[in-house]
Amino acid sequence: MRGCVAIICVSAAIVAATADVKLVEDPPLVRAPADGNVSGVITPPEKVSRVKAVSRTTRKVYPAAAFDAKTGKFLFRGLPGDATYDVSVTTTDGRTIEGIDLSAADSRLASLAEKRRRQLGMPPARTHKFDGDDANALLEYVRDMEDFMDIRRALYVQGHGKYATVLVEMIRTAKFYAAKSSEMIWRIELWHFQYSYGGWERIPNTERVLQRLRLPQAEWRKIHVEYYPQLSVYVDPVGFAKSVAFKLPDKPDASRGRPPNTDPELKTEPHVSGLDVKDEPASRPARQPAGS
């Protein structure tokens, strides 16, 4: 009993000694990003029916706070900062023209890691020069992979050194379980890759699904959607975003999406950029991909 009484006394003394100590939370290592506005102009304004912004990460859709039908000027207010938004335009003739973010996966974390390496005096991380052979390797990956879908088409390939981003259209036209007559599956996804041990591999759990539909082929043929990187906007941590200026294309461009009344197996050249080669056109790989 004496031992127990002693322990109780000591415990009471500790509680009494710390009773006046105030608990203070450590400040956050990184400030919370500020909200920001995204503005710009889309021409010709008379062809614009609706403007919205989409976060591919959260899948939230933000309606425009203002759109001037005479000038084409638009404004989104209070978008969360340190995030990218794809502006989506619905035209009066039923087209959907959307932005597409082709930046590398976790690019912000990679930038912070590199800054930390410099602070600690560590050597920089190993780099890789993204060239035409890399672009062709990614195109071959898309073309030759075997999965549930029977048609695959690369729309964009963006190199970031040892990282790369690919926008892919995939279609299932062959009959599948519980499929109704003429029913098909159509998807558009954004894939992220990393160069490792002499080859390219997909980074798991980083894909973004932009379109995912199961519908009759007659209904699918009415779809008209195109993607343009110029309509993708980054709101930085202090809430700043560059202004957008975009002219709606006069004609459909099958290489940037899916026009209406086209066959599922559509042959187009991909848009390739980020090549680390002098005098290399940014719109195509250094050499044509095998089998094209």
Helix content: 10-25%
Number of strands: 17
Low-confidence parts lasting 5 or more residues at pLDDT below 50? 279-292
Strand content: 35-45%
Order of helical and strand elements: HEEEEEEEHHEEEEEHEEEEE
Q: So how many helices?
A: 4
- Give a quick account of the main beta sheet: strands, pairing sense, barrel closure: 7 strands, mixed
Report the average pLDDT across residues: 86
- Whole-Å distance between the termini? 89 Å
Q: How does the overall form come out from the CA principal axes?
A: globular
As a whole number of angstroms, the C-alpha radius of gyration is: 26 Å
Q: How many separate structural domains?
A: 1
Task: Map the helices and strands.
Layout (H helix, E strand, L loop, with lengths): L1 H17 L17 E8 L4 E7 L6 E3 L2 E2 L5 E7 L3 E9 L4 E4 L7 H13 L12 H13 L6 E10 L2 E10 L10 E14 L2 E4 L5 E9 H4 L4 E4 L3 E4 L8 E4 L9 E2 L12 E3 L19
Parallel strand pairs: 1-15, 7-13, 8-17
Antiparallel strand pairs: 1-5, 2-3, 2-6, 4-5, 6-7, 6-14, 8-9, 9-10, 10-11, 10-12, 13-16
Describe this structure in words.
- This protein has one domain (36-273).
- It has helices at 2-18, 107-119, 132-144, 217-220; strands spanning 36-43, 48-54, 61-63, 66-67, 73-79, 83-91, 96-99, 151-160, 163-172, 183-196, 199-202, 208-216, 225-228, 232-235, 244-247, 257-258, 271-273.
- With 292 residues, the protein is α+β, with helices and mostly antiparallel strands.
- Strands 2, 3, 6, 7, 13, 14 and 16 form a seven-stranded mixed beta sheet that branches.
- The protein is globular.
